[in-house]
Amino acid sequence: MTSKTYTAARAKRLILDGNFPEGGIVEGSLYLSGCDLSGVTLPTTIGGSLDLSGCDLSGVTLPTTIGGSLYLSGCDLSGVTGWWSDNGEATRRRCIAVSYYALIQTDTGQYIAGCRGPWTKKQALDHWGHASRKDKRAKAFVAAIELYDAAKLAA
Question: CA–CA separation, 155 vs 151, rounded Å?
Fold first, then answer.
């Protein structure tokens, strides 16, 4: 079965109307910032970037392939996202925490947030767990890194 491909504008209308077909593909970048995504189906593949800033992502399955960047700033992210591939790379990623920036964990054991990283677990904990870091983001990121150890959960 061949998946149907949609322009970003058409895909956005279908998604927001709750009519996007399962397995659909989007050409280009998709901007859904601030949209109510409850009960919607997102595309499995997006050719460009995906902006979900400010969205409640509870129960939402992220695409498995995103050709550009994934923006999750200000999202209500109640749990860990599923794994996805970025820019056609073999390395898979998932979001494990959000505190203004999304903390992304790769299946190779690296961590990235904003312009920080890619870092090993030790480097990430040295940065966010440093004694001088007492801010909310540092605490959230350290807790997530310790909870979601890539070596144990990459499967």
Answer: 9
3-state DSSP assignment of residue 105: strand
The first and second tokens of residue 42, run together, are 């997102």
Q: Against a cut of 0.70, is the pTM above it?
A: no
Distance CA(80)–CA(86), nearest Å, equals 17
Query: What is the enclosing helix (H) or strand (E) of 118?
Result: strand 116-119
Token pair in block for residue 124:
């990430």
The H-or-E segment that residue 110 falls in is none
Asked if residue 128 lies in contact with residue 137, where contact means CB atoms within 8 angstroms, the answer is yes
**Contact of 39 with 55, CB cutoff 8 Å:** no
Q: Are 60 and 84 in contact (CB under 8 A)?
A: no
Q: For residue range 82-115, what is the model confidence (pLDDT) as tens digits? A: 787 777 788 888 888 888 788 999 999 899 998 8
| Cis-peptide, bond into residue 43, ω within 30° of zero | no
Contact 116, 127 (CB under 8 A): yes
